[in-house]
Amino acid sequence: MTDQMTDQTTGQTTGSPEDDDRAAIRDLARRLVATTFPPARARGVAEKGGAPDADLDRELAAAGLTGLEIAEKYGGGGGSFTELAVVLEVLGEHVGASTLLSSAVLCSGALSLAGTEAQRERWLPLLAAGTVSGTAALGEWLGGRDRVVATRTDGAWTLNGRAGNVLDARAGRLLLIPACTPDGWLVALVEPSVPGLTITPQAQTDETRCLDEITLGAVGVSDADVLAVDGADTADATRLLGALANRAAAAVAADSVGNARRVLDMTVGYVQQRRQFNRPVGSFQAVKHQAADMLVNLETSAALVDEAARAVAHDPSSCDLAVSLAKDHACELAARNAGTALQLHGGIGYTWEHDLHLYLKRALLNEFLFGEPRWHRDRVLRGLLADDGLPGPS
Amino acid sequence: MSSLETVRTRVRLAPGPTAATRGRGTRRETVMPGEHAQQIPLDELRTRLRQWCAEHVPHDWRRQQTGAGHQEYVRFQHWWFDELRAAGYAVPHWPAAWGGGFDLARQAVIFEELARADAPRLSLHFVSLHHAAGTFLGAGTPEQRDRYLTGILEGAVWCQGFSEPEAGSDLASLRTRAERRGDVYVVNGQKIWASGAAYAQHCLLLVRTDPAAPKRRGISYLVLDMDSPGVLVRPTRQITGEEHFCEIFLTDVEIPVGNLIGAENDGWRVAQSTLASERGGTMIELAERLAVGLGWLLGEVNGAGGKPTAGTVAGDRLARLAREVQALRLLVRQVITRPSAELAQGAHASVVKLYYSELLQRLTGFGMELAGLDGQRATRRPLSSGWESGTWLLDHIGSWEWTIPGGTSEIQRNIIAERALGLPREPAV
Ligand SMILES: Cc1cc2nc3c(=O)[nH]c(=O)nc-3n(C[C@H](O)[C@H](O)[C@H](O)COP(=O)(O)OP(=O)(O)OC[C@H]3O[C@@H](n4cnc5c(N)ncnc54)[C@H](O)[C@@H]3O)c2cc1C
């Protein structure tokens, strides 16, 4: 029942070619993730203490989904962010412990946006093939407290400081480290083996994702490994970081939409089958109405996230408002839906054995990952003030 | 009969529309966009609308309509309808043959621009343009369509006589009885909450023709002429102080059998076309009006205490409302961008209605909070406006006008849970 239901909400067969492509990608991703990464495996990952799941990443790469957005000349699929968002949503449906967000959305995205030809040629084919994964440390940019400082000595940069909550750093062979300079920002390409760099895995309550801390003690970066840097009158690095933050926030919002979709399916299935007082608990209106609200939350989130993904893909320089509206809404409501689902499952939902906690914990993490609610709301308010209200529909 | 006359003269101050009294003779040559309207590029249509609104929306209509009497309200509504009709914007959602023919995307442009120009709403004609038209287009004979749609274009006002004192959410339990005698139905019973009935020339009437049949199968759908003998209309004062909805008492009222819409005892099905008509373009306009309202709130917060920021109560509320209004705008546009089958698993209309009405309640409630104690002073609402009276308190109180009729929020949640999610149905009685 759940599959059919899900398909209807997400636009399996619509008129436009873009929608048809997205539907095909969704089908493919669903089949692949469901077989490679069943729920038992999600719990297994947690118990082994070790996301990301290498098998899942291998399968995604082999199917061409990791490189979906990378240009064809670097071995990618030449697709758009709206397609990548579909895969992210499917991973959300399965609490997939994959590096797609860190590696494809952040690392490959940054190289495609700002890399020199040499940097792209060196890294993008490896990233597309999944032989290498990478990530970016966006915490400081997104209002975090950690600092990395870059100083210029002898024609090269030196990085010192700390970056916490970096997604999948432990799995990355390429780290994008933003650092403050006297003129603004610098984004450096750093390999984890470089002297002076340590990665300390953080323990997270959501065990399907891993966040790590990176410390840098006099890490040297040559100009060839600078991805972008602000000058006295230029803001290349600032622009890049802004674009990456939008990609990350839209991606995590898509994950939350997938999360909410699966949580609703699980809940509807459960309340139909669980009987008390001689009838399915799903026949009680108090239960039905909460389920109806979950659907409304899901539908409004999906609408905003679709729009945000489109804006990131087609209008990257002015997508801040669309992204923050979607991130704040979808992530908050997915967490709320997961809480409602827990309530409607009763005691069984409160067990470690049931899958629900994987979804609840991930939805809760998503609410704070890549911009806490406050950061996004401030951006929404600034956007509203600048435009004198919500911008007109396109 | 004399009480009928009293009630009529009290509320029916406006004469029924006739060519002579409304000066239609000179207006025959008005724009009927028809098929060519479909071809206008969206941008051009938007520019045209913007210019038209700038030239035609009276800048002081709110002031004029505040404290206006019934007569002034009715006169103004007919005048505004004529203006829109002459420009070709009164019935964009109707088929081309009837002066519409705009696709949904173009309807959206028209409704958006009217909303952004803060144009008056056609509240007097609302049932005529949507419910009545939707019914005849969905279930009327060609003759009925011809007669009644023409009448509506000439300004005829309709009301909807569905609810009864004992039949609200459980509409199918209605009791107003119609017995066939020769070529008339003889109708006895009572309707309640019929919006605008005191101004109406016609009423969409649901009656029971077969009391023995299961409750949905014994209902028929009739057109009632409001000046028929035996019809008594009594306005009910509403929570907002106005008298807009009415009781309708029916005593041995004779309705010609030719006024039957659809087949006898098939009225429940016909009523679905009536209820389905409040969708599409109308919802787009309502969503746009909310976006305008959000802009007002932003201005109020910004003006009062400096720039709103997250972490303050007002800033957080505004940011939340912004994402909700934007979500609603995107949801209503899905009707244009996606095939209907996939929309919210078949419960799209219910999702939109529920979300809109409750969002309106939150948004106006926030406005009321901003206004504080001073906002509690008595004010009057300008007629011809939607919820946007200019007074958040009245707007907030008026927001229940959306969560109660047209299927209450509770009924919408039942529909969503049952239709979209497949949960067990409520006990059918
Ligand atoms: C401003 C306004 C304008 C109106 N205009 C018109 C009009 O023009 N024509 C017309 O015919 N009618 C009109 N109505 C009537 C409107 O359609 C009814 O008020 C509405 O259908 C609810 O019926 P009721 O008032 O009898 O409430 P009830 O049905 O008695 O409901 C009372 C409460 O019980 C709840 N309830 C009822 N059944 C269920 C259930 N199965 N599950 C859960 N909760 C339930 C309701 O949600 C509500 O909260 C109008 C009403 C208003 C307020």
TrEMBL record, chain A:
Residues 1-15 have a biased composition (Low complexity). Its cofactor is FAD. InterPro entries: Acyl-CoA_Oxase/DH_mid-dom_sf (IPR046373), AcylCo_DH-like_C (IPR036250), AcylCo_DH/oxidase_C (IPR009075), AcylCoA_DH/ox_N (IPR013786), AcylCoA_DH/ox_N_sf (IPR037069), AcylCoA_DH/oxidase_NM_dom_sf (IPR009100). Pfam families: Acyl-CoA_dh_1, Acyl-CoA_dh_N. One of its GO terms (molecular function) is flavin adenine dinucleotide binding. Residues 20-130 form the Acyl-CoA dehydrogenase/oxidase N-terminal domain. Residues 1-23 are annotated as: Disordered. Keywords: FAD, Flavoprotein, Oxidoreductase. Residues 246-384 form the Acyl-CoA dehydrogenase/oxidase C-terminal domain. It comes from the Bacteria. Belongs to the acyl-CoA dehydrogenase family. This is Acyl-CoA dehydrogenase. The lineage of its organism: Bacteria, Bacillati, Actinomycetota, Actinomycetes, Streptosporangiales.
